[in-house]
Design goal:
The protein has 13 helices and eleven strands. It is α/β, with parallel strands linked by helices and 355 residues long. The chain is globular.
């Protein structure tokens, strides 16, 4: 009998990073006989994009019906059990886990990036969800350590982010650069009290890149969060910076990144998509998951957002450029290893539900 999986995550909400996890998960399952339903922020859009039956994630009556009709509730990944933005995220997802267990369903937490969790209530809700899981796979060793600090006693496997299983980039029409300038993707994000500093540092960075014959290309990984920030950066520089605001699918974005020369990113999945197509990403650290990605790819520790300015970031990028061949070779080696480790999520699912 074909297992019916209900997928939960921040899907269909305008975040290309979370949607890249979904696409990688589906790619990993392409030879596995499963029936999928997706909890989505935009059911019609996700059905059109991925051909998966979708249920509105905020319609709790229909969510409950979907839970009762599935064989297992599956979280393909991301940092959904976190309270750094608010308690709503960890509260919503831990409620889904509680409802699924009450209905007698299996719960699989795959590719998990754990935290940040700062509040007592957030930690308590997350620990309860993780301890209720039938299968628990994290995407990096740091997440394993966080689970242990929360008192999670379930067996845990360390895999990798499922976005490493994205389908390969399609044939490109050549480099994305203009007039011989090398294109460099820029993926900033707002970050609480540091947002003004992010805007100033990245605004100054794109100016310095342009003056040194690079073509900066701004990438909003999250439509609602990054889009306004990118507009402000463009306005601060006269509104003349190319951007990819019209890209609405992770595979189209990965295709465009494959035509670039470099990537400077705060957003984790901008770095993963770059690595998927062989481009070493210079990450800017604001969260331990960013450091974990650089470490996984064999790259030097990323510069920290604290105290960062455009000049320092540009100097870091130029130093990164001088090691471009070494970094590219390291990414080529490590991305294959990461893809194999991402498959651990699929194997764990098969062991639990199929074999």
């Amino acid at each position: 009998m074909t297992p019916h999986l209900l997928l939960a995550g921040y899907f269909g909400c305008g975040n290309l990073g979370d949607d890249s996890i979904l696409l990688g998960f589906m790619e990993g399952l392409k030879d596995v006989d499963v029936d999928l339903t997706l909890l989505s922020g935009s059911p019609e859009a996700t059905f059109r994009a991925y051909g998966v039956r979708s249920t509105p994630r905020r319609d709790l009556r229909r969510v409950q019906e979907a839970i009762e009709s599935c064989d297992a509730l599956v979280f393909p990944g991301g940092s959904v059990f976190q309270d750094v933005t608010s308690l709503r995220s960890v509260g919503y997802y831990s409620t889904l886990v509680r409802r699924a267990k009450k209905a007698g369903k299996k719960v699989l937490l795959l590719g998990q990036g754990v935290g940040p969790l700062t509040s007592f209530l957030g930690k308590r809700m997350a620990a309860s969800a993780y301890n209720a899981a039938d299968v628990l796979v994290v995407r990096d060793p740091g997440s394993m350590n966080t689970l242990r600090s929360l008192g999670v006693s379930r067996p845990v496997k360390v895999g990798a982010d499922l976005a490493f299983l994205m389908p390969p980039a399609r044939d490109s029409a050549g480099d994305f650069g203009v007039a011989g300038m090398k294109a460099v993707g820029i993926a900033p994000r707002p970050f609480g009290k540091h947002t003004k500093n992010v805007m100033a540092a990245f605004g100054d960075l794109v100016r310095r890149l342009y003056q040194n014959s690079y073509m900066p290309v701004l990438i909003p990984m999250d439509r609602d969060e990054d889009g306004p920030l990118i507009l402000e950066i463009e306005k601060s520089q006269g509104g003349k910076i190319p951007d990819l605001r019209k890209i609405d699918s992770p595979r189209s974005l990965q295709d465009r990144i494959s035509r670039m020369h470099g990537m400077i990113a705060m957003r984790l999945h901008a770095g993963i998509l770059a690595a998927n197509v062989g481009i070493p990403p210079l990450m800017v650290s604001y969260d331990p998951k960013v450091n974990e990605l650089s470490k996984r790819l064999g790259l030097d520790s990323p510069p920290d957002l604290e105290g960062l300015n455009g000049q320092r970031l540009f100097e870091k990028f130029m130093a990164f450029e001088r090691e471009h061949e070494r970094n590219a070779a390291s990414v080529a080696r490590q991305r294959e290893k990461a893809a194999q480790e991402a498959l651990l999520n699929v194997e764990a699912l098969k062991e639990c539900l199929i074999q």
